[in-house]
Amino acid sequence: MAHDQELADFARQWAEAELRGDTVALDALLTDDFTAVGPHGFVRDKKQWLDRYASGALVHDAFTWDEVTIRQYGGAAVAVGVQGQQSIYEGRDADGYFRMTQMIVEVDGAWELAAVHLSPTGGRRGPEA
C-alpha cells in the first residue's frame, strides 16, 4: 500500500497540471484508456480531455481540488472532493464547483488517473453542496 503522501502528491500534481493546461504533464498522469464523465453526462477519452487544452478551448484562471478524501484498495484508490474553477471554455464562462470522483490506479509503480466523474454542485461548495 502506498503512503498517503504519495496520493496527496499525485493529487497536487494533477491539479497544478489542470490549472496550467499542461498537456505533457497530464499525458503522463492519465492512463492511456482514461475516461471522463462530465457534469452534463458527456464522455471524453484521454485525447479529447487533452485536446481541450491543446486547442486553447479551455483556459483556467483558477483551479482548486479541495475537501478531498482518498481511500486506497491495493493498487487502486478512490478520491472524492470538490473541484473549483474560474475558467473560459470556447469563449464562454465556465466557472463553477463540481463534486468529483476520481479512480486512481497504480501502473508500473506510478499512480495514474483512470477515470473521473463530475457532478455540478449548483455553484455551492462544501459538505452541503
UniProtKB/TrEMBL annotation:
It comes from the Bacteria. SUPFAM superfamilies: NTF2-like. Pfam families: DUF4440. Coiled coil: none annotated. Residues 10-112 form the DUF4440 domain. This is DUF4440 domain-containing protein.
